[in-house]
Amino acid sequence: MNPATTPMRSGLSRGLIELRQAFDRSELINQLLWPVLTLTAVFFLRNKEFQDSGFKLGTLVMPGVLGMFIALGMLLMIQYLTVEREDGTLLRAKALPHGIRAYFLGKLVTTSGSIVVYLAILLIPGTFIVDGLRLDAVSAWLTLAWVLALGLVATQSIGAVLGALVSNPRAAGAMSVPVMGLIGISGIFYPITSMPDWLQWVAQVFPVYWLGLGMRSALLPEDMVVVEINDSWRHLETLGVLSAWAALGLVLAPLVLGRMARRQSGARVAEYREKALQRPG
Question: E strands of 93-143, at which residues?
Answer without folding.
Answer: none
